[in-house]
Amino acid sequence: MKARWLMWVLWPAFVGAAVAFVLVFSLIDPRELRVFGRPLELSHGAVYTIGFAVAWAVCALSSALTLCMLPASILAPMSSPMSAADELE
């Protein structure tokens, strides 16, 4: 069951992070980023990686909060055991 919930949280978060990543970094050049007035001394790949990881974490938190706030009447049918076809192994 937890594997299914992880899928419900992480996959939409990945897609949302990808969209956010494309939108943000199409407008912002990593060479122009500054932290506390000082330029970042990271490679472009590192900035892109950190940016995507942060966007994915924020989107995952949003998806997880949505899942946690679902009413019990909606979660009850979903808490049934998974069949062999549903398992991710």
How would you summarize this macromolecular structure in one to three sentences?
By secondary structure, the chain is mainly α. It has helices spanning 2-27, 44-68, 72-78; strands at residues 34-35, 38-39.
Features:
single chain; 89 residues; mainly alpha; two-stranded antiparallel sheet; 3 helices; transmembrane
Q: Nearest-angstrom radius of gyration?
A: 18 Å
Instruction: Work out the number of β strands.
Output: 2
Enumerate the spans where pLDDT stays under 50 for 5 or more consecutive residues. none
- Percentage of residues in helical conformation: 55-70%
Distance between the termini: 12 Å
Q: Summarize the helix and strand pattern as letters.
A: HEEHH
Judging from the principal axes of the Cα atoms, what is the shape?
A: elongated
How many distinct folded domains?
1
Q: Order of strands side by side in the largest beta sheet?
A: 1-2
How much of the sequence is in beta strands? under 5%
Helix tally?
3
Mean pLDDT: 83
Largest sheet: 2 strands, antiparallel
**SS-based class:** mainly alpha
Protein name: Transmembrane protein
Keywords: Membrane, Transmembrane, Transmembrane helix
Transmembrane segments: 7-28, 48-72
How does this structure look, described?
This protein has one domain (2-75). Helices cover 65% and strands 4% of the residues. The chain is built from three helices and two strands, in the order H-E-E-H-H. It has helices at residues 2-27, 44-68, 72-78, and strands spanning 34-35, 38-39. A two-stranded antiparallel sheet has the order 1-2. Helix 1 crosses helix 2 (44-68). The chain crosses the membrane at residues 7-28, 48-72. It comes from Cupriavidus cauae.
